[in-house]
Design brief:
Two copies of one chain form a homodimer.
Chain A: E1 2-7, E2 14-19, H1 26-33, E3 37-43, H2 47-60, E4 64-70, H3 79-91, E5 99-104, H4 106-118, E6 124-129, H5 132-138, E7 143-148, E8 151-158, E9 163-167, H6 176-193, H7 195-203, H8 205-209, H9 213-233, H10 248-258, H11 265-282, H12 288-300, H13 312-320, E10 332-337, E11 340-344, H14 349-358
Parallel strand pairs in A: 2-9, 3-4, 3-5, 5-6, 6-9
Antiparallel strand pairs in A: 1-2, 7-8, 10-11
Helix pairs in contact in A: 1-2, 3-4, 5-6, 5-9, 6-7, 6-9, 6-11, 10-11, 10-13, 11-12
């Protein structure tokens, strides 16, 4: 069983395939890799699980394959790791016809996408996300990046993949905590765009928690549909795309203050959404009951909703570093209703400060 | 006196201003920098000459300015130098509204362009080339890159500037050898595209050699016109743009074999063009007299036309690394006439080998 969505971006349009058994299907890959070198970029956790199968599929689709294995972890999303990709491509004399195939979670996807954006000024790449978070979020939309010691995702490019393959089979081995972190982004799509989807998540929370494949596939598909819709409206994040950052401005501050890797991105986003919902209620944009409804759902999905304690000036400093900010003013994504996000530029500093000092 | 050309690339179109006194003209910069942070990226050779004047102009145009001074030299076109730009932008909390202003030669232009392509996934930049080579070649067309220890210009992006300002005044302090190297690229445009321009260069060689401003301005303008025309046809180098690499495949091999920085890029290209013309004659594409005419002109402009001696297999290895190659076959730009370049994929290896062993 599988479904195909289309991300409409003119001559950069591409398909997202969602289903089971997809990594084993050469026909899916043929037009992208036939007669070319396909360099699988993966990490040392994922490689033993899926790399050999993917190599067989790519070879059957007519590609010469190459395997580049990176160290695992968000702390490794650095120039040094990116350079491992460049070095191995150059040693293999990989030309501009080479296609990179990202096999892994968000870190592998981001590094591979950025390597594809910049190797010989840009080559093709495919995304095969193996975490729920990457399937519903980072693999779609063409945002690529590495971290800089002075800021997360500060160096990167917009570079759309040639195809995204979200194979439910790859989620079977995902640790429970990472799985829950992925569900946070699924909830996000309901919160900012689709109250019916949010209700569906509430109704199917138990199925999702026990990894029911059909429920999972629906959740991934609807999440990708909403993301594709928003990205098609605003590929380079000058407007509507900022909605996708619901929970992220608070979330990034939580991640930064805790130190990279201590808290999973999805966990920080869950807490960030809880805060953004509460702040929306405080600002009179939604009712307290709506904020509470979102928070209850996050808790049911085993996600954290209470931030670690740190001083208000640390909050504001980290929130001030967000790329969406302009001219030193903080941009926040708030809710005008459950199912309706709003981009608020120049968030009221005083209210934010008193809110954070209580949080 | 000044002229303005337009590079037609849809929503990435931009103007090239060519003339004198341009760095001192705030009106030229106003729409690009007013109300924004303008970060001048330059090097320690150029900064003492022009940075203060440019800062005054940008301030008068309504910008907050920031100065980032890099070490000079092709050997510094590395990730480490690029990271100096990122670090200073991040320390200054430069947001996405920041515009980078490249003030320098090709290395500064390439690094600044790539920094703009990748800082926070892409910000604006302007090019103010201060060498003849950069004015007629690298500042126009949006190719940006850094070198990798395993290959020149291997990591980069296509990222068009918002404007190019070629101010003849900045050439006054250019060393004679660098000036001649720039003339090599001027000759290239005549050789691949415009026999009349080539004849004009022949007629005006003495004026060009004594830095006659009017002659220089014409040479820069016609070179940029031809480059803009070719780039507009093929922004991402999938076809016609490869013509601009006339002399470069041999040239890159000469640069690599000699070691970065020993031979100037323009000098290597001059020798490369001499070889490409001779090889075109050998292949029966042009007459021997046409090749000789080009070589005589290069010599009059004080450019080298004889390559250093190194083994054929070294030639072939370096030529094999060129980004334009596909599937291990060497792509060469040859001449079908003086004034008419041709992209030859899959260059005949045996003939090339015997040609190189004699060269």
């Amino acid at each position: 069983m599988s479904a195909t969505l289309r991300v409409e971006l003119g001559d950069r349009s591409y398909d997202i395939h969602i289903g089971t058994g997809l990594v084993g299907r050469p026909a899916l890959f043929e037009k992208h890799v036939h007669g070319r070198t396909a360099a699988i970029v993966t990490n040392d956790t994922v490689a033993p699980l899926f790399a050999a199968r993917l190599e067989g599929t790519l070879a059957a689709a007519g590609a010469r394959t190459l395997r580049i294995v990176l160290p695992d972890g968000e702390a490794r999303k650095t120039w040094q790791t990116l350079d491992l990709v460049f070095e191995q491509l150059l040693r293999a004399q990989a030309d501009r016809g080479t296609v990179l195939v990202a096999l892994g979670g968000g870190v592998v996807g981001d590094i591979t996408g950025f390597a594809a954006a910049t190797y010989q000024r840009g080559i093709a790449h495919l995304q095969i996300p193996t975490t729920l978070l990457a399937q519903v979020d980072s693999s779609v939309g063409g945002k690529t990046a590495i971290n800089h010691p002075l800021g997360k995702n500060m160096i990167g490019a917009f570079h759309q993949p040639g195809m995204v393959v979200a194979d439910m089979d790859t989620l079977a081995t995902l640790p429970a905590r990472e799985y829950a972190a992925g569900l946070a982004e699924v909830v996000k799509y309901g919160a900012i765009h689709d109250i019916e989807f949010l209700a569906w998540i509430e109704d199917n929370a138990d199925r999702l928690l026990r990894h029911d494949t059909a429920a999972l596939e629906h959740a991934v598909r609807r999440s990708c549909e909403i993301k594709a819709l928003i990205v098609a409206q605003d590929e380079r994040e000058s407007g509507a795309r900022a909605l996708l950052n619901f929970g992220h401005t608070f979330g990034h501050a939580i991640e930064s203050a805790a130190g990279y890797g201590k808290i999973l991105h999805g966990e920080a986003v869950a807490t960030g959404m809880a805060l953004a919902a509460k702040f929306s209620a405080r600002a009179g944009r939604i009712r307290d009951a709506e904020a509470a409804r979102l928070i209850v759902l996050l808790e049911r999905l085993k996600l954290p909703v209470t931030p670690p304690r740190f001083p208000v000036d640390v909050w504001l400093e980290y929130m001030g570093r967000d790329k969406k900010n302009e001219g030193g003013r903080i941009t926040l994504i708030l809710l005008d209703a459950l199912g309706k996000g709003a981009v608020v530029k120049n968030a009221p500093a005083r209210e934010l400060e008193s809110f954070l000092s209580e949080a």
